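4.2 Preliminary Data

To establish feasibility before requesting continued support, the project team ran the inverse folding procedure on a target of 328 residues. The structure was first converted into the token representation described in Section 3, and no sequence information of any kind was made available to the design step. The complete token record follows.
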């Protein structure tokens, strides 16, 4: 196991290097440029330098006057030491801005993950147990709606109902206008109130795939010979489902749950942007739009690292949930 993990980590490091190179090349080629934006703003000031002069000076400051390969190796040389530079958009170190906003995304994603597992897996098992019944059809339709409709649709419907028509929740933001005047407990309730619609949106669009996956794999297990043997021994249906069938269903489910790691820390870019929650997804979107290369590079590399880590975690968990699986 140790050799396997070490081998995967070494492979991941090589992959991260080439992923970073590709991302940096793409970032240098995008039409949106923070340097050009700043040069236009400074050139518009009275008594200032011309746009061309400012552009040349800023390109030299941010090392944008070199070719892509020189710029990449210059960036990665400092990134290895943990210094990812200063964000052009937010004028603070990239890592400092990341630490400031990551927990909002983590809390939002963690609550969503708990609700997703608590809703999807029991409903998927229930649907499989009552195949072709009204319950099965209802769960299937509910799952297909969640899979088919986009995030912005659910977000718009929730805003229309709870914010515009009922007036219960605010349309945007993490806190209300009177947040600073509230007690600590009141501030906690205010933040929780603003998280209701983003959590509902993320839950609705994410439960369908896990629900259908659980149902499909549970049906396959329930039709296995060892399940018929367990029932023939006189075991209760509860023991057959929970002890025998569900354990064998866990293996494919672990694949999906292992790949949720990027979502836990990577932020829900669309949802956070729609509700203007200042998490890593929304902040990264603003950085990408403005052409903030240092922050975007860090975010994309961080997402690649989480994806590789999630895949490795899923592989290791196979051996945990199924003793027949061994990694050599």
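Position-by-position output of the design step:
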């Amino acid at each position: 196991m140790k050799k396997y993990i070490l081998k995967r980590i070494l492979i991941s490091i090589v992959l991260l290097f080439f992923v970073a190179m590709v991302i940096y090349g793409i970032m240098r080629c995008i039409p949106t440029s923070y340097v050009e934006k700043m040069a236009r703003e400074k050139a518009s000031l009275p008594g200032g330098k011309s746009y061309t002069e400012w552009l040349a000076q800023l390109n030299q400051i941010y090392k944008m006057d070199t070719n892509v390969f020189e710029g990449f190796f210059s960036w990665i040389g400092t990134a290895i030491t943990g210094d990812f530079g200063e964000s052009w958009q937010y004028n603070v170190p990239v890592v400092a801005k990341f630490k400031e906003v990551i927990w909002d995304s983590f809390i939002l994603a963690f609550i969503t993950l708990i609700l997703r597992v608590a809703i999807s897996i029991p409903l998927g098992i229930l649907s499989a147990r009552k195949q072709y019944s009204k319950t099965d059809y209802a769960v299937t339709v509910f799952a297909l709606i969640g899979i088919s409709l986009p995030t912005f649709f659910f977000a718009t419907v929730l805003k229309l109902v709870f914010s515009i028509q009922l007036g219960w929740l605010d349309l945007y933001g993490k806190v209300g206008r009177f947040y600073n005047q509230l007690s600590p407990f009141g501030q906690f309730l205010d933040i929780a109130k603003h998280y209701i619609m983003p959590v509902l949106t993320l839950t609705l669009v994410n439960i369908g795939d896990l629900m259908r996956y659980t149902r499909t794999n549970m049906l396959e297990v329930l039709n296995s010979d060892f399940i018929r043997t367990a029932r023939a021994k006189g075991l209760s249906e509860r023991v057959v489902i929970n002890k025998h069938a569900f354990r064998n269903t866990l293996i494919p489910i672990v694949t999906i749950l292992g790949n949720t790691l990027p979502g836990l820390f990577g932020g829900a870019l669309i949802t956070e942007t729609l509700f203007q929650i200042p998490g890593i997804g929304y902040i990264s979107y603003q950085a990408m739009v403005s052409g903030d290369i240092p922050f975007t590079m860090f975010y994309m590399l961080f997402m690649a690292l989480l994806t590789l880590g999630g895949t490795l975690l899923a592989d290791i968990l196979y051996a945990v949930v199924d003793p027949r699986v061994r990694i050599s």
